[in-house]
Amino acid sequence: MTRKSERGQATVEFALSVTLFLTLLFALFDIGRLVYLDSALTAAAQEGARILVAHPTMSTSRLRVEMCRKVVGLGPSDIHVHVRWPRRNTVEVEATHRYHSIVPLPFFDGLLLRARVRMHVELGR
After folding, report:
1. Domain interval for residue 40
2. Residue 49, Cα to own-chain centre: how many angstroms?
């Protein structure tokens, strides 16, 4: 009788430990994905500012498509772009993305990633 109860106990312990291990593993992947998307969003905003310096009349929707070429895993509908010209020779591009995690942890899901880039435009003399 003790043999069966020991096997049952080992099965329960295994189920609990594997669940905890897999949750931590996927949370680690989630953190890596979050860091990647934050960095890629910054690169996309920088690219958007560079594009606007060369083509200041480009539409926001076209700019969003061009910026998404820099971000693997995100489409134009996943990134929201806001363009401002605070001064005549300065462009500011802000890109935002609502992050949704793989692991349903309350502090990860729904984070707003934001990248803001300001670039000075050299005017011809």
Report:
1. 2-120
2. 18
Task: Give the sign of the dihedral formed by CA 105, CA 33, CA 113, CA 66.
Answer: negative
Q: Which amino acid is at 25?
A: L
**Residue closest to 113 by CA, chosen among 102, 123, 98:** 98
For residue 14, is it within any domain? yes
Sheet holding 90-99, edge to edge: 80-87, 90-99, 111-120
Counts of helices then strands in the chain (DSSP H, E): 2, 3
Secondary structure (3-state) at 76: coil
Instruction: Judge whether 34 and 112 are in contact, CB under 8 Å.
Output: no
Q: Is the pTM of this model over 0.85?
A: no
What is the enclosing helix (H) or strand (E) of 112? strand 111-120
pLDDT digits (tens, 9 = 90+) for 13-28: 999 999 999 988 988 9
Strand-pairing partners, residue 2, are: none
Domain count, the chain: 1
